[in-house]
Amino acid sequence: MKKIVVLGLSGLLALSSLFVSCDSVKNANNTQKGAGIGVVAGGLIGGILGNNLGKGGNAALGAAIGAAVGGGTGALIGNKMDKQAREIDQALPGADVERVGEGIHLTLNENAVRFDTNKSTLTSAAKTNLDKLVPVFNEYADTNIEIFGYTDNTGKPEYNLTLSGQRAASVKSYLISKGINSGRFKTSGLGIADPIATNDTPEGRSQNRRVEFAITANDKMVNDAKVEAGK
């Protein structure tokens, strides 16, 4: 797998110190119980990181981290996400799979889902690659999937914002057409934000015309993990 980042308690606290005051981190520490991080602290730190990364960094990454639950429940969810991330990477080697917190950050760049300039329609190659993800998404049905669409910097920002939303919606619609429950999805268009490559070259602009996913536990997965953790 290209990137696996599993942030535990120490990693989350270290990152949170970049964005919040020392008092806030101290308060988060006070909620810890035993060897693991408590549910309240996990949610607090996850929310802090998610909000800040979403504003100044990568929105999909922030969303994946921001859904953290923490504690024994979070550990059980994380184990399931580990398995799903490995299966995604095996199914679609061209994707960039990143395990963060208790979620998955998935980037479908030009090697996986490619968009032509000013287009939101999926190419045949893009559909073929999305088909490879469908069995994995169906196997792990107790997850929410948030899709973020992006563009290069060609054209006006307002137009690109709309176009990026259409790209995310195209991916969502295609996955739903393949039998994935529509209630699992949210979409956002972020236009030219968060470029992953230079917009000064055709190759870089191609990489920026992409979609990213934040895959997180839904209520059922969280509740099932709570029950299992309490046994």
TrEMBL record:
Domain OmpA-like: 102-219
Leader sequence segment: 1-22
Primary subcellular site in the record, as a coarse category: membrane
Superkingdom, natural source: Bacteria
InterPro entries: Bact_OuterMem_StrucFunc (IPR050330), Gly-zipper (IPR039567), OMP_bac (IPR006664), OmpA-like (IPR006665), OmpA-like_sf (IPR036737)
GO cellular component, one term: cell outer membrane
Keywords: Cell outer membrane, Membrane, Signal
CDD domains: OmpA_C-like (cd07185)
Transmembrane segments: none
Subcellular localization, as worded in the UniProt entry: Cell outer membrane
Protein name per the record: OmpA family protein
